[in-house]
Sequence to fold (515 residues):
Amino acid sequence: MRRLASVGLRGPIAGGLRWLLVALMMSGAPVGDAPAAEDADPGVAPAADTLRIGVCDAILLGLEHNHTVAISRLDPAIMRTYAGEQRAAFDPELSITAERSEATSQRRLGSQPNPFDLEDAQFEGTVELSEVLPTGTSLTLRAGMTGSVSNLYTDQYTGTVGLTVTQSLLRGFGLGANLARLRRARLDVAISEAELKAVAERTAADIEQAYWDLYVAGQEADIQTASLSLAAQQLTESLERVKVGKLARLELAAVEAEVAARESELIDAQSAHELARLRLLHLMGVATYGPWSMAVAQTDTPFIPVDLLDPVEAHAQVALEHRPDLHQARHALEKGDIEVSRTANGLLPRLDLFISLGRTTYSQSFEDAYPDLESPYHQVSGGVSFDFPVPNRAPSSELKRARLAREQQALAVANMERLAGLDVRTAYLEVLRARAQINATRTTRDLQDRKLAAEVEKFRVGRSTNFLVLQAQRDLTASRLNEVRAKVGYLTALVDLYVAEGTLLERRGITSLED
Fold:
């Protein structure tokens, strides 16, 4: 089977290539290197609304246009916004404030009987840059100026610059406690990506199954048509024998009833073929690029892959490494570990060490009062703060809950690993059974073909009956259907095995699901 390069094409050029691929398929141009269908007539050009497509191209179109995949493809992008939101907790924050006030009042100076009108104007401006580090450290750098101007007192301007550092020593200390939410958010992104792969893999399997179901339905319609033709031929021969007196007219009733029954079976087969066509178009997202009435010309036929199966234990080991549901469960277990670490830190009392350093500049003019790190006037302050709730029930309960949830998740992962092993072994046995059925059904069909030829020859010389000929025709029809179903059953069993081990997309050459 030909492999797809990737569905991770990006940009307008990639979009143009995709539409060109669809246009080539709908125009009847050959796509890919898949073998041509056995019943294809190279001398008849397909209709303009016919989609010529192989199984790999059907998977590619489905992953590009299937609405379920399109919906799931948005989940990782949504989860990344939550991760960005948690990352923002460690972004620097800049704040600027400016304030000015004016006041008019009366003051009495000394023993003067008349009050004095006092006009006073004050302003303050600060610039502050603060940041919280993942280590539990808070940094605040601050610079500002204040000024006071009045008609009574001397003008005064003050500039300050300082740095305050606060370090958590117990609760809130270290990367484990402070990066917990960010790490959980990033694991949610990984979980959503695994979910997307699971949806895409299931969709690819459904498309491949639907493709072969359509093939089987088409073959059943052809086989039922041939069966009806055989019954009609038998009726013609019976009528001729009645005319010459070699067969009683009563024998015609059984043959006519058989012709009517096979007409009914042909109608059912044609209806099943139409339903299979609609299902395949739906899975490929037909509404995006074509009408529902579009016919499907399949360019692939069932084949037996030349590569041999590995031992079942090798497939089981691959499943432990590649199944998306196991990836999701393990990421959830990692989230549980992070939550236990975070809640354990929450049990500790809060003990913070802080220190503040600053310089102050004084002046009677605005220009000379700018903050100056070399100013002789400074201030230094420091200390510790302690906080511990008694009896600290809430953090204790939260830690206990986190540990129980983590234990539960660990048990779930172990159980999923066992189920993955069961799924792989069950699918492996089905592949072996389906492969053995191919030769068995082929042999049965050959024998039924010979049996029918013998019964027809015996009927023509008067040594058999219509009943036996019609029964042989039915047995041949059933054997032909079983042979076709066995070939397709083997391919779908392989698909189920690849889904069970989580490698279907990789085996089809699909390496990216990003837009």
Summary: The radius of gyration is 40 Å. The beta strands are 50-53, 93-107, 116-132, 137-150, 156-168, 295-298, 350-363, 377-387. The longest helix spans residues 393-460. The chain has two domains: 13-84+183-333+408-507, 92-132+137-171+350-387.
